[in-house]
Here is the input.
Amino acid sequence: MITEEQTKKEEIQPVVKVSNLVTQFFTYKGIVKALDGVSFEIRPGEILGLVGESGCGKSVTATSIMDLIPDPPGRIISGEIYIDGFNTLADLNRQAKIIIKSETNVKVKRNKRYIKRHNFIMSHIRGNKISMIFQEPSLSMNPVMRIGDQIMEAILLHSKIEIADSIIRRETMTDEDIRKFYEDAVKTKTHLDLRGFVHKWSQDYGVAEAEDGIIEIIERNDQNAIQELKNIVAEQKTNIKLKYIQLEREYERYNNLLFDLNLQLMEAESKNDSLKINELREQIKRTQAYIRSKFSGYRLIKRFIGKRIEEPFRREARRRALELLKLVNIAGPDRVINSYPHELSGGMLQRSMIAMALSSNPKILIADEPTTALDVTTQAQILDIMKDLNRVTKTSILFITHDLAVIAEMCHRVAVMYAGNIVEEAPVKEIFKNPKHPYTVGLLKAIPRPDVKVNKFEKLESIKGSVPNLINPPSGCRFNPRCPFKMDICEREKPKLVDIGGGHKVACFLFENADGSRKEVE
Amino acid sequence: MELRYFIIRRILLLIPTLIGLTLLTFILVRALPTSLLLSQYVNPHSTLPRSVQIAHAKALLGLNYPVPVQYFFYLSALFHGEWGFMVSNFYTGPVLTGIEEFFPNTLQLTIFAVILSIIISIPLGTYIGSRPNSVADHAGRIFSLAVYAMPAFVLALVLQIVLGRGAITGNPLGVFPISGTFNYALVPFPVPSWLTSPNTSALVSHPTHLIIFDALIHHNYAIAYSGLLHIVLPVITLTLGILAGIVRFLRAGMMDNMRQEYVKTARAKGVPENVIIKRHIRKNALIPTVTVLGLLFASLLGGVVLIEDVFDYPGMGLLGINAITSYSIYGVMGVTLVFGLVLVFANLIVDVVYAFLDPRIRY
Amino acid sequence: MAEVEAFKIRRKEEKKRSARMEDFLFTLKLIFHNRIAFAGLVITLAYFIIAIIDYADPRWLGVSNLSDALAFLHGKAYYPSATLVTPPTLAHGWYYWLGTTEYGIPILPDMLAALKVDLTLSVEIVLSGALIGLILGTVSAYYGGLIDEAMMRITDIFFSIPALILALAIAFIIGLTFTNIALAFIIVWWPIYARLGRSLTLSIKNMNFIEAANAAGSSSARNIFYHVIPGVLSPLFVQFSLDIGTVVQLFAALEFLGVVPVDPFLPELGRMMVWGETYLIYGKWWAVIIPAIFLMIFTISVSLLGDGLRDVLDPRQRR
Ligand SMILES: Nc1ncnc2c1ncn2[C@@H]1O[C@H](COP(=O)(O)OP(=O)(O)OP(=O)(O)O)[C@@H](O)[C@H]1O
Ligand code: SF4
Ligand SMILES: [Mg+2]
Here is the structure.
């Protein structure tokens, strides 16, 4: 749990910080102003809930963060999204010029070079620092690929260097190493210590498949234990030349270097540091040329024996995939890993999705209504898994739902969305005890409560009207046509999200003066 | 493996189709007057007297029995290789022997055309399908549509004029022969045994009957090369004819799959765009494309008839056309049946490939 | 209960009707936006308008029937040298812009007049085939069971022989005349539509509004006509537009093979190309190439239109 003190600490850097995000869709019917200046942040280890009616822009917010908005028709117009401290939208204006002639006539002039660079950068961030799981698990898995292959794909994309290191260590392991390991292992006191020690070692040396065998040998502790250990390690070795593993590792390393350089370049560009820009550009060019010259031969070889080179990597990735599947408590992971999506239930698929999302220890996981398509018992299990993961791995979660009961159970903080705006944001207890925004109040009233007897129709009426059309949204506060407390100013101006104390923020003129200063709350 | 059971079931499903196919040809044949059926069974070169032959045909076709029973006589005659007789200035003799002689030539054309069109269309369809509404997309679509919309025989004629040897004198591009299967002048004088047919005087190669392959087997590279040159133009024409179909379906499939949720998942994993297209989208897009391959193959077989006519290529198409123009009922029947069989087996292969690509349907 | 349902459905239908008009306008707008589909639409319409003009008064275009053709052969319009005139020839009026055939028949008006014959033929064939197929496919899918199974097997048989070859075989049996070949084409064509109609009906049958309509007590026949057929019509229309071009081509192919007796004075694109072919070898390409391109443009346009329609009518593509 996040304590009050922790929330107060200013120096904690948020894992994701979104500010003034504007995303629009240019359709033949007009411009859908789906997000209208959304700001929030997610702190390390926290579960942030995002609630709101259907169509209010929750999914658009999530997909904007992941940069998965389908283009055309959609584009992020402005804003900043910091993922792990880096603004992924820094070169937004360079990527495309948007010329709006009229509502239905919008020209987008894309700059291929910047978009390409952006995609390159995002493909290193996505699935690595930030992962996402979706609402419909059955549609979200590639129907013609085995589950295992899909999880392995994610692993191989982001952990190749790590895997290569462990393989190289294994292949170059000397008898001396094994003896040393054995002596250290025997020194451990308890069975649990031994397990932990062996686990770490076998991970490092890429022999994790034989972990159980190693433990058994050490516990038996007879004379030829070292010889047995040597044998069992030798069994794990592959017959592929070490040179190829090293090359594969190098290739990956240079790609990562390119990624880093591009990040630096983007930062320099946003600071307009022309000296640095030129230097970095030069460096990127050199690196690219180097990669081209050094690896062209290797890539040709890979065309022919690529499968064999990949083999040891795939074996390790497969082992990790199995481990991940066990982590999400799936029944029969050995069967699941070889199954196609259509052979599994929705719950199992969603677990596999979570396993896939966790494959490279992301800093943050975005879950867009992960349980809506599932039955009630499975829902509860999936929620439990996510909660456990958050507790154990300290992965932050952005949890999107329109089920307030789930929010109450899962989240630390809540942001309430309405028609493309965040209207209220507060710690979860505060929202339920002390809702401020008229929309939140209505939303909470709409929850059926066993203690209050309400007419079926009355419940629906608690917020009258429906979600506005986002092509011509109401001016000022977008909630004003439905708001029982509407004032004159509400049609003219847009309320800002202001802090009313205790981390509770509201965007409503009932709590804000026109000049932006905070009204005293009674 | 489930795939095996799928294949077995699919092969069993061939039985009703084959019954239907023979039934249809039977109905076609029976729609003609009986006297015609009998008289065309007669082999004019046979030493047996005509009346004996007709009596034999009558017994063979079971004409004394009711029509439904005659179908079984017809089937039995087919199984015994009694496919009737045809007389035309292209080929005269037993229909089955003619088919044996000319079918391999047609097979040779279609094999090359199918392979070539798949090799070209899949990368092309992937490329333009992943860039909808780009310049490449429009150009690729218009080009493939243009060759599809050009009547096949006109396309063949144009190719003959532009690339055909001797069509226009002094044409530097004219390097490809425009008729026949290979240059007969290359046949060595005592005609080698692999080039002679036991029952006709025609040049029929052994053992595969496919002249290019047989020549290669017997190390006669001159004939193989000549055979290859001869099929270049027909194969190009046939390929262009079905190219557009594959490209179009692949493109539609690519665009369709591009919007699917699983692509979003792949992007969310950080898969680079080119890998998404090749590994994820294309594999899914090929599934609907494969289903239309059967239909396209049917149109390819239709095109073969035209192409063989234009290029004077002695195959099934030319046999069929000559059977029609010389009113040879059994010739028409035989050619229809064989084309039907080829299509049925092509569809079988298509279905197996389909099941191989799509795990969802093999249950 | 049923009354409430019926009321709901009536309300829904009323809403749908006004929505349909809006939908139609939106569709039009989308087609205008899709420039390529729009070009296809314009060219296709132009071809049909030419054919219709020819129906209204053949004299506006030129050769349209035997007597007109003879008039060209022996009358005033007869081109002086009577050989193939090379296009473009601007001297003798628009008739001769695209040159002439061997008898001095000018290609341009001949081609325009041919549209009447060719389009009528192909619309007749595809329309009859589509009608038969639509009815059989829809009905068999709607009732399901044995009827459906039998229908599937029958179409299977038709699909197991290449269309061109089956049409040839059928025409051979019933006699090789112009009309019989058209008939053979219809026989070959309907299974495509039966399949299409069937699959569409099945997908629509599974939608719940039919169940709701059944609950509201509407009869089966009413169901077919009010719900099923409108639902399948638009995809069928796409297929229809694609087939129109194919039929003209196949017909020309048969004429080329020499199995259709061609009326030498019937303006018809296939006949023009077949005749023109003889002169190709002498480098006189226009008599065959120009009609071929004329036909090609038509086929491309209808295909583009069909593709565009599919894109526009596909609800997933509407954004
Ligand atoms: N591809 C798109 N094209 C046009 N408009 C879109 C597109 N995607 C989303 N929108 C619009 O953006 C708005 C927000 O949609 P979004 O999917 O984010 O809603 P949501 O809050 O996730 O709703 P739900 O709870 O139903 O998932 C909607 O008004 C929708 O019409
Ligand atoms: S700003 Fe005005 S309209 Fe909006 S919620 Fe507050 S009171 Fe209502
Ligand atoms: Mg959503």
Q: What stands out?
A: Chain C is about 75% helix and 0% strand. Residues A 437-438, 477, 479-480, 483, 485-487, 490, 495, 508-510 surround iron/sulfur cluster (ligand 2) (CB under 6 Å). Chain C touches chain A through five residues (CB under 8 Å). The first helix of chain C runs from residue 2 to 33.
